[in-house]
Predict the structure.
Amino acid sequence: MLTQKANYFADVLGYDITIILTDGKGKPLFYPLSEKVKVINLGIDFDDLWAHSFFGQILPYLKKQRVFKKTLTELLMQIRPDITVSLLRREINFLTKIEDGSKKVGELHVNRKKYRYYEAYNTNFIKETFAKLWMKNLIGHLRKLDRFVVLTEEDREAWPEIADVVAIPDPLPFFPSEQSPLTAKRVIAVGRYEYQKGFDLLIQAWATVEKQCADWTLDVFGHGDRRDYDAMIDRLGIDRSRCRLNGPTDHIQEEYLHSSVFAFSSRYEGFGMVLIEAMACGVPAVSFGCPCGPKDIIRDGEDGILVANGDVDAFAKALIAMIQDDQMRERMAQNAHRNVMRYKMEEISRKWEFLFGQLLD
C-alpha cells in the first residue's frame, strides 16, 4: 500500500515523496517504486532484536531507539517536509517532538483490538501487562498527532480517546477491465494459512457445502503451513479433489476471474484487501462480519452476504444460497463490481489530498 500510494502521488499528482526505512539496507525493494520517489535507509536494523529473548531485547532496543531518534531528527530537520506520515512503528514515541515544521500524521493498518495483541495460546501475565501499558503510552502519543488515520469507519469509532481520527481505506491494487463470467463452479479464498484467516472455519463450513452443491469446488491460495488444515480435511472426510489448499500465486487476478463466489472467513482484519479485489473482479462474497473491514465493504444483501462472526453454520448456509441462486449471484456480482469503484486509487487519493489540504490550510 505504501508503494502504491507513493508511486501515484509522485507520478500522477507531482508530490515530492521520501520514504525513510530502518531495516533491510542493501536489499532490493519488494515492489517496484517510481524513480521519482527517494528512499533513505537508516540501517538501524531493529529486526536483529528477534534473535534475542523477550527480556534480552530490552537493552539492545533502547540503544537502537536512541540512534533512530537522533538520525531521524537530523534527517527531518534537513528535509523539512510539509507533512510526515508515520506507519506507527517505533518513531511514534518521539515523532511529535521533532520540530521540523511538518504536520505529523499517523496511519494504522490493523484494527485497535488486534494492535499489539497476543493470541490466547501465546500470552502470559507479563505480556498482557506490557500490552496494556504500551497501549496507554501509545494513546498519549496519538493525541499529539495532527491527524490519526485508520482504515475503516468501524475502527475509527474504536478510538474515543483521540479527537482527530479519520477513516481512509486502502486502495485497490488493480481494477480489471473484465469481470468473472460466473460460469466456473468454484469458490475461492485467499490469505495466509494462519489462525486469523479462519480457514479452519471455512473448511468446517465446506464439509456441509460440498454435500449439497455437486460439482462445486473450493480453492484456497496463500502462504504458510497447510498441514493442520490438510489434517482437518481428512478428519472431516472432505473430498480432496473438490477442496484444494494451494500455495501462493502470482496470477491472483486470473484466479478471481475463474471463480464465481469468494469466501472471506477471517476472524479479524485490518481491512480486507482480498475482499475488494474479488469484488472488483465481479465475484460476490460471503463473509463473516468480523472486525474490521467487511462491514464497511459489503452492503449486505446487495453485493454480498455478511454472517455473524464465527458462525460456521450460517456461513455454510450463505455459501449454499449464493451457489444455488444464479440470479442472486449474478445481481450481487454486478453490484460488487460497481460498488468497489470507491476504492480505486483515484478515489482514495482524493481523501488523502483533502486531508493534506486541511492540515496545510
Notes: Residues 2-171+344-360 form a domain with the Rossmann fold fold (CATH 3.40.50.2000). The radius of gyration is 22 Å.
